[in-house]
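lol ok so funny story. i was supposed to be doing the assay writeup but got distracted and ended up predicting the structure for this chain instead. priorities right. anyway since i did it might as well share w the group, maybe its usefull for someone
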Amino acid sequence: MKQMGKVVGIDLGTTFSAIAHVDDDHAQEVIVPNAESARITPSVIMFEDDNSIIVGDVAKQNAVAVPEQIVEFVKREMGKSKEDFFREFDGKAYSAEELSAQILLKLKQDAEAYLNTEITDAVITVPAYFRDAERDATRKAGKIAGLNVLQVLNEPTAAALAYGIDIHGSDQTCFVFDLGGGTFDVTIMKVSGSNLEMIATNGDHRLGGKDWDDKIITYVAQQFEEEHGENPLQDLHAYQDIQKNAISAKVELSRRPRARIVCQYNGKSSRVEVTKEKFEELTADL
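and the output, tada:
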């Protein structure tokens, strides 16, 4: 029989999300693996033809095959009205918070299955610069997913607490730099004992790892167009394929001096090499 009332912490990210709890036996925070046994879950949603909704790895893996049924990067749209942003599937329009609720529901259900415990309450982290509209949308998404949102916590504060900055015993001023998959913020915090005071914060909710990916995507498309006279980004399937390869190339460039991407579109193919120097040149303005 399930126990009642587990409280969790959730990182609702632009590209990946995670859920954690405090292990009562060891009094330590632990990330809860999802149904696929992974510690993080892609923040990707797929709407199937039979009206079912799939979130996570399976959705991400099918992004190339059925891009018109995929929703990504919802966090960047949080706080917008349904008139300003929505995605429609099978005649139903979904707002940003309704889409985010699907990600939260996936995290909640997987954690309940893993912990054999009902999850009722949650703390959800958000960028420090999120305004009231974005924070309210996050709370609403939690409510739609069946969660009582105890607090919407600034991500820099959560990072500082996770690092243990509040128990190091010395007063200090620290700088938290948070470059995520789709958002970026920096925060200066004053630490006095166990008290954390946010002195200043700033950020860009449309700057993140995705923008580094986009630079590679655009470069590959330009090289293809120069060779074949066609722009592969006009096709959604080709875009998803280039995006997948661009992300892999970005990771590879962290370990190697160059990466190669094969771009295929409309029966034509180009092999594009991206060196670390070229990548840095492409992304210098970021």
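The helical segments are 57-61, 96-115, 132-144, 155-163, 209-228, 236-252, 276-282. The CA atoms of residues 102 and 165 lie 33 Å apart.
back to the writeup now i swear
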